[in-house]
Every structure is written in C-alpha cells, then in structure tokens.
Please model this.
Amino acid sequence: MGKEMTKEQYSKMVEKASPNSPIVKNCIKAFIVGGIICTIGQIITNIAKFYGASIEEAGTYTSVILVVAASILTGLGLYSKLGKFAGAGSIVPITGFSNSVTSPAIEFKKEGMILGLGAKIFIVAGPVILYGVLTSVIVGIVYYILG
Amino acid sequence: MAKHIGKQSMRFEKNISIVSTASTVGTKEGEGPLREYFDVILQDNLLGQESWEKAESKIASDNLKLAINKANLSPQQIDYVVTGDLLNQCCGSTFGVRGLKIPFFGVFGACSTMGEAMSLCAILIDGGGAKNTVAGASSHFCSAEKQFRFPMDLGTQRTPTATWTVTGDGAAVITEGNDHPYITGITTGKIVDMGITDANNMGAAMAPAAADAIYQNLQDFNRKPDYYDYIVTGDLGYVGKELLLKLLKEKGYDISKNHMDCGIEIFDRDRQDTHSGGSGCACSAVTFAGMLYYKLRRRIINRILFVPTGALMSPTSVQQGESIAGIAHCVVIENQEVCQ
Amino acid sequence: MMDYVNAFWVGGLICVIGQILIDKTKLTSARILVFYVIAGCILGGLGIYQYVVDIGGAGATVPLLGFGFNLAKGVMKEIDESGMIGILTGGLKATAAGICAAILSAFVMALIFDPKEK
Model:
C-alpha cells in the first residue's frame, strides 16, 4: 500500500470525476423561461396601466398576480416541474419567491398548524426578507445622512 | 465461535444462513432495470398514509412481515430484529417494528445500514445469542428530501453528481441452518473522511471508505479480488464508482471486472433521469434482497462481497460546515457452507 | 411592442446570471434569492437599478432584484416624505403587497393541497 492520499489530492481527483452541470443548456432554458415570466409581468403591467393604474400600482398588481399564480402552480405540483426544467429561470423571478413560501407551507403542515406550517413557512424565504429589510435599513440610514 | 482475523474482520464458524429475503420498492424503482426481482412494487408511494414518514414505516413493517413469512416463520420465532433508516432518531424503523413485538436493535449507518444490520445479526447467531434474526433497512425518497434537502414542491434543479434516494425496504431473515447462501465473514469499516462537504456528491464522500473496507477485507482474508463473483458497493453511483476503482488501483487491487454498484443497477440513468444513481438505505437493501439473493439462491453467482456504503452526516452538521464522513461495511456471502 | 421584447431579454439575462451562479458556485436557491435581494437593494440605493428598470420594465422589476430595488426605493421615498422614521417604515411598506400575497396564498394552498412527489 502506497502513501496515504491527502485531502487536497483527493479533492482534485473528485473534481475530475464529477461531471459539470450542462451550463450552456441550463442558461438557455433559464433565459427563455425567465424571459417569458417577465414578459407576462409586462403584459399585466400594461393592462393595469391601461385601466388607469399608476406605474407603482401597476407594479404592485403585477407582483400580486404573479405571486398568487405561482402559489397555485406550486399547490398543483407543477412549479417544481417547471423549476427542474428552468432552474434559475423560475427561481429568480418573484414567482420563485412565492414558490419558496408555498412549498414549505404545504410540506410541513403535517407537523401542525403552528410549529409545522406556521414556523416553517419561511425556511427558504425568511432569509430573503431578513436580509432584504436589513439592507434597506442600511440604504435608508446612508440616504438620510447624505440627504 | 467467530474468529477475529486481520485488522477488522471476523470469520464465522457456524452456518449462518440467509433463509429468505423480501423487497418492497416504490413506483420509480418498479420501473427500473431490477423490477423483476422485487417482491412488491408499490402503486402509491404514500400507501394511503398521512405522511411520507408514516408511509416509510408502513413499508418497513409490511416488508419485514413478508420476509418472516417467506422463511416460514412467525414473528414470535424471531429472536432479534435489527433495522435502521435515514430519519431522525431512526423513526422509520421504530414505528415499522412497533407492532411486531420482536426484540429490536435500531441501528444507524446511513446508507450502509443493511451491511451493519446483517453483520450484527451474524455476530448474534455465531455467538449463540440468537437463532433467528431479521436484518433490514428502509428509506423513502420524499421523507429523505424533506429532512435533508428541500420541500417536495420547491422548484430546484439537481446537480449531475446528486443521487436519488430509493423508496423501499429490503429485509433478510438470517438464521443458523443449512440452506445457502451463508454469511461467512464480515469486515467492519472504519470512518474515513476525506473532507468532502458537498452534500450533493455523496459518492465522492463514500468512495474512500468503500476502498478502505474492501482493501482491508482482501488483506484480512488474504484474498484476491477475483475470489468474489461480484464486489457490490451500496450507493456510490457513477461518480463514486470511478473514484473507488481508482483508489483501489492505487492500493494495488483491480476490481474493475467484478465491481457492481447497487446505485447504478437500480435505475436507468438515461431513461429515469436519476443523475449519479440511486442512494439511501433501501438502495443496497432491496438490490441484495431482490437481484443478488435471487442469483445466489439459483447459484448463478456463488460468492459476493456485499459492501453497503454510508455517508454519515446530519442536516445540522452539513449546515455547520462539517465534512461528510464515509463508512462501508463488508459482508461476505457465499453458497459454500462453513461446516458440515 | 418594444417593451415586451425588452422585458423578455432583460428578465432572461438576469435569470442567466442566476443560473451561472448556481452551476458555478453550487449556491442553493435560497442563497441566490438572498443575493439578488441584497444586490437589488444596493443597486437601487445607488440609483443604478433605475436605469435597468427604465430599459427592461417588468424584466427588471419581476426578478428578485426588483424586490430589492423596491425596498430601497420605498425607504428613500418615505424618508423624503416623513423623515427619519422612513428608515424603518419605507422598505416593508413598499413591498407589503407582494409579501402579504405570498403568505396568504401559501396558507390557502397549504390548506388545500398535500405535497406532491417529484
């Protein structure tokens, strides 16, 4: 038996043996699906504006409609299928945020309404809200001081 | 009594017979290349239960009963049941065995559990502590995903090195008797950790442990790899297999001709989109209880080294940045009896 | 018509960046979402993201970068209107509808549906 292999040597060996993700194919799929979701968003925005909504209101309607639609698709078990195909294309839009709230809510309801559904609903989305709000407060402080 | 030989092995001196096995698998496994060898293929992976966890326990319970039944024994005649699974605190097994009223050892060896359970049953019998025992292991894709990864409905992609947890339960009734095949020896693996932290590359985390255990088995028993018809690892998958063969070659053994991996056998990678292969406690357990036992009974093969492989970790340890520790247990299974 | 084309390619491109991050760094989806919100918030605070929104429309606001952008925009607007307290109220106020809709629909869906096998 030869010399013991070091962790570094083994790590190099693993890297060689492990296939990489088909990144070009994944990117094309992400581009198309992400693009389509955003285009649907644009359609909703334009319809809202057509009916007299302000730009801000239109944006809000768009978010709400996309969020609810993604939540329903999640409940039907379709969003996970879309996610498998699209990767970041369906994670990065706000629909992915909605999926990340609805999926643990459904998965963990067996552990009860409070500690299951209630506590675990934010296992994926919680950090998004935490760090988003945190950053916005920092932006606010800087803006207040400079402004 | 068993003899401790070499560094990590035991050679048994009684005829420790595997008199029956039973395998129950989920729908996806039932569409795979090994489907003809399984006893029960589920139509519904929830089995009408309320949760994935309850379904896993029901699978374990039903399959253990089936194995005992096939051995023409009743649960009252079984001295010990030794089983394990992947769920927290071994709950899959606990609630599966609950109704059987058999003395119970719950074991955890991650996906190496079947090897650990079979080893312990053989030791119990060889030491005279038991006559009839059952070894088993279960896992469920959905309960494992829920515990170790993400909710089922979260839309994510799996990496090419990821494996697919097998849904099912494999069990073997092991008794003292004169019916082939026999467990003639074991090599208990030690934990080998080469610092892999990617929980989506379990094959890489386990390959060094498998190489270490197989090397030790060959050394302790003073055998060449071709002594065995097959050297069967548990769930290294395609990535882990490649690494295992390389590691053993560096140690002077070429097992490329007779190596087989249950994780590779159980699914059709191209048709079933399972990436690096199958995994989970049930992966090696159902492959043994199904195909391997079938071939041994009919003497299509006569000697195997069964090496279930496990990735020891918990969601907490992974989140804390701890590396994934590998383990593998060798069980020597032969048709040749030990004593007359 | 041009706004649809722009929404498509800007939104698609933002997703492609996310895909590259996932494949190259093994970041999980949770980390990607966090990264995008923080990035959007900072770019919004610096006034850079407004240009992306001007070009891409929904292509820039629908991705989570837009969520971060709205947090920053809301904070700055509240500070302009109500002073210092806006630091605390502005962010969540601007994004309240999205978060509330996500919670509400998730709860209803959890009552109706059971988890589905992949």
Remarks:
- Chain A touches chain B at residues 1-2, 5, 7, 10-11, 13-14, 17-22, 26, 74-75, 77, 79-84, 86-87, 90-91, 96, 99-100, 102-104, 106-108, 110, 124 (CB under 8 Å).
- The helical segments of chain A are 7-17, 23-50, 55-75, 79-86, 88-91, 94-107, 113-120, 126-146.
